[in-house]
Amino acid sequence: MGFPNWKENINKLLTIATTVVSLMIVHSLLKSIRDILRTKKSFADKPLESYLQVCQIIMLFIGGTICFSILTGSSPWSFLLSLGAASAILMLVFKDTILGFVASIQVSANDSIRVGDWIEMPKYGADGTVKEINLNNVKVQNFDKTITTIPTHTLLSDSFKNYRGMQQSGGRRLKRAINIKISTIRFLADDEIERLKDIQILRPYIEDRARTIDEFNSIHQIDPSNPINGRKMTNLGMFRAYALTYLRQKSNIHKTMPLMVRQLASTEHGVPIELYFFVNDIRWEYYEGIVSDVFDHLFAATKYFDLEIFENPASDDFRQFIRTQKVSVLN
What we know:
Blueprint: H1 4-38, H2 48-72, H3 76-85, H4 87-93, H5 95-110, E1 118-121, E2 126-133, E3 137-142, E4 147-151, H6 154-157, E5 161-162, H7 164-169, E6 172-180, H8 190-196, H9 203-219, H10 235-249, E7 260-263, E8 271-279, H11 284-301, H12 315-330
C-alpha cells in the first residue's frame, strides 16, 4: 500500500468529479423539465428561464460548498459561517441577480408581462414582442427585427406599455383628427341641403335633422330672413354626421366599443374633428390598411361639404400668390 498521499488526493478528485457529474445530471434534468413545460400552453408565457437560472445558482453554491469542504477536509458548515461574514460583498456582487430574481417572481405573480406580449418601453428603445425573460434581462424583438435587452428589475421601477389587453379584446383603437380650416365653416342654404340629400347614407339624418330644426324655429317664431336667427345646419356639422354614419356602416369597425366623431377645441391649425373608434382586426398591417382607407375616403369627402383641410403653405403656394399679385398689378 504505497503512495498514501496519492491515494488520498485521487479519492478527493474522484469525489469532486462525482459531485460535478451529479450536478450536471441535475442541471440537464432541469433543462429537460423546462423544455417540456414550454410545450404546455399554461407555461408557454411564464419566465421559466428565470427559475432555471435560480436553480443553477443554488446548485453552483451547493456544489462549490461541497467541493471546498472536500479539498480542505473541513465541515461545510464552517465554510457557510465564513460566508456569513462576507455577505455584504456577496450582496454587492449578486445585486443585479437578486433584483432580477425578485422582479421575475413579482412579474410572474402580478402577471404584468409574459413571453409573447407586445410591450413598448421608450426609455430603452423597446417596441416589440417579448422573446425571453430571465434573471438579468428581458429580450424584446422590435418590429424592425432588432433585439433590445431590458434589465429585468426595471420592469418594477420604470413604466412600460403592455398591449396584451388590446390583443385580448379583439379591437385596436384609432384616435386621430382632421383639421378643418375655420374660414370654410358656414351655414348651409336650402338648395345645398337638398343637394346633400343625394348622399345616400346621409339622407335619413338630413330629413330627421331638418324636421327637428323646423319644429324648433316654428315654435319660437324665428325670423328666417337672417341665417343666424334660430337653428341652422352647418357644413361642418353635416360632415361630422356623415363621418359618423360612414364609420357605423363599415364592417371592420367595432360596433360594441366606443365610436364617436367629435369636435375638439380650435387651434392655430383649425378645428380638429377627431375620429375615435376601434378596428376589429388587431393585426398591424390590416389595421393600418383599414385606417388608411377611412381617412382616404374622408379627406376626399370634405370637398363635397365645401370644407378645406388645414395645411401649412408650401413653396408653390407662395409662388402662386406672387404671380397673382404681379398679374393684378399689371392689370
